[in-house]
Design brief:
The protein is mainly α. Helices cover about 50% and strands about 0% of the residues. The protein is globular and about 45 Å long. InterPro entries: DUF7677 (IPR056094). This is DUF7677 domain-containing protein.
Length: about 100
């Protein structure tokens, strides 16, 4: 049975830690209180979906773009809590898909 790589596990764990302690996506979320996403499960679900959809690994399972995946998730969170924030580039369908 195939398992997720240690590299992906580390990236997901780190992302989760930063989400939970309020430091994900700096500088995009610098000074932004996004704690409301913990009260809206679908918003948190969407942030994780974006992270998981955007992250890439090489043939050995080594994550190649963890900071970019984090940044895209942070852009979603920022747009969720700040209606004036515009995500650039706009999300593509595959980035926000819920599988």
């Amino acid at each position: 049975m195939q398992k997720l790589s240690n590299s992906f596990s580390r990236a997901l764990r780190t992302f989760s830690y930063w989400i939970a302690n309020g430091t994900v996506g700096l500088p995009i979320l610098e000074g932004i209180d996004y704690s409301c996403i913990f009260e809206e499960p679908s918003a948190l679900e969407q942030a994780y979906a974006i992270f998981a959809n955007v992250i890439e690994m090489d043939e050995k399972g080594i994550v190649c773009n963890a900071k970019y995946a984090e940044m895209r998730a942070a852009q979603f969170i920022r747009s969720y809590v700040d209606n004036s924030y515009k995500v650039k580039p706009e999300f593509e369908g595959w980035e926000v898909a819920l599988y």
